[in-house]
Fold each of these.
Amino acid sequence: MAALKTEIKEENDEDVENEIEIDDLGEEANEPAKRKKKKKKKKKTGEGNPDENIEKTGTEVTVENGVDHEGEADGEKKKKKRNRKKGGKIVQTNPPSIAIADLFPDGVFPLGEIQEYPTIKDDRTAKDRFTSEEKRALDRMHNDIYNETRQYIQKWIKPGMTMIEICEELENTARRLIAENGLKAGLAFPTGCSRNHCAAHYTPNAGDKTVFEYDDVVKIDFGTHINGRIIDCAFTHTFNPKYDKLVEAVREATNTGIKAAGIDVQLCEVGAQIQEVMESYEIELDGKTYSIKSIRNLNGHSISPYRIHAGKTVPIVKGGEATVMEENEFYAIETFGSTGRGLVHDDMECSHYMKNFDVPYVPLRLQSSKTLLNVINKNFGTLAFCKRWLDRAGATKYQMALKDLCDKGVVDDYPPLCDIKGCYTAQFEHTIILRPTCKEVVSRGDDY
């Protein structure tokens, strides 16, 4: 989720599918003797013993005593196959449907990409941090990292799908994987799917019929949380290869920002390196060459529990603040490139909202406002939400109440952020942790 800077300096104008062998299901359906024998065996070993017989109906897979049985419903033959994972370990389905916590019942989750810290001015190097046993012990606290749904969505999206269809598929997948549980685990903010000149903070409201077209450049920005610990990531999706240079520029700028980040590193130095890489690119579209600009009033941000924008900003142009990054901080390193002015403004119908983290008690006169605030507190707390999510939570006729809460400063609105019409914008983003001994890119995957 993008952070909007308030000041602008003039000088900066196929996965492994189910990990199960699936082949020739039902080919032996004409062998009644074998089928009868198999059904009899299942009755002996499985019925009445839940520890020995676990069925996952969504994928038509049965696990008996560590052995997978696959086949079709309605009595058709289930062909026995041994799980390729040792010990019958549960593996993910395709599309993803098993909660990450169920895949790792011991609570030991995969780490993200580990990077050493860059050398800083006083010559304290990354190697020095890797020799500290005390700080290495602190690192073991960071073990609740969850996989994201990016790879599935990137393969699933097709031209002609509506934005609502795309967002709901992504959100429902993420909810399953995170094992949504009220404010303890779930989505951290609405799925952004901003198109073309719109850079951030657009998600469709109910009734929005916008379609993802072949020539669109769409930024997919989403995140999940466990106990308020947020993982924020974004990628740009296109179908037309003519935008490849724009996508490449922004991806490389994000990777540059990640590489530059570290404990005691000044935020302005990160921004300067991002801009240098971003603006070394240009792109030719329809016979005209465009310089790719960093969007100077958008930036990355620090993250704290239940607070997506925690106070520090990571600029993507030179000339920012000299504030330093500190140990154990979480950051969203996100960059935005544009073929337009490189400056965004509020535009279009608002869909993103978030309760003000620091707001004191505010007396409310309207009963509808009190009711809506109770819905927000119960379902979202200080996490961002959208109108679709209010609908999902059962809120009705809330437009006036929502406006009242915004007018009183209890809730902040975040309208879509757009550059000039006709231009194209792209975004990439990762969440990093400045661990005591190293830097971890917790949202890194095989895709980017």
Note: DSSP finds eleven helices and 23 strands in the chain.
Amino acid sequence: MKYFVALLVIVACVSAEEWKPKTADEIKTLRAACLQEHPLSEEQMNRMKVFDFPDEEAVRKYLMCTSEKMDVYCPHEGYHADRIAKQFKMDMVEDDVKKLAEDCISSNPKGDKANDVHVYEVHKCLMASEVGQKVKSYIKSRQEQLAKQA
């Protein structure tokens, strides 16, 4: 039975042809589910709102959960640079984003790929890159638009 479950996990992780980037609404739903599974303090939430991700277990577990639910990370396979590129390319060339993601993944080996510290380090690297700058700009712009509508 445990081999069957392991096989299902592998199949789920490598089903790349079915994967599609998540919409903003889907990401919002996934994040809410991860907050239910891995509650964060108000201070942690406030820090993350300004893109300051503290290196704390609860934050690392939350980041791992969101990465898994977005299907850009799999405990068995690790990160999927191609999916990261598709999800976060913004106005960049997808191959350039994939290269940045691959560089972050390879520069942060942690042995066990199903490790929240590894997930955190790759996330930190990506957020410090051009990809992260584009994501931050997009989120800030979206927050400003929502504030104007309110």
Note: The domain at 24-137 is CATH 1.10.238.20 (Recoverin; domain 1).
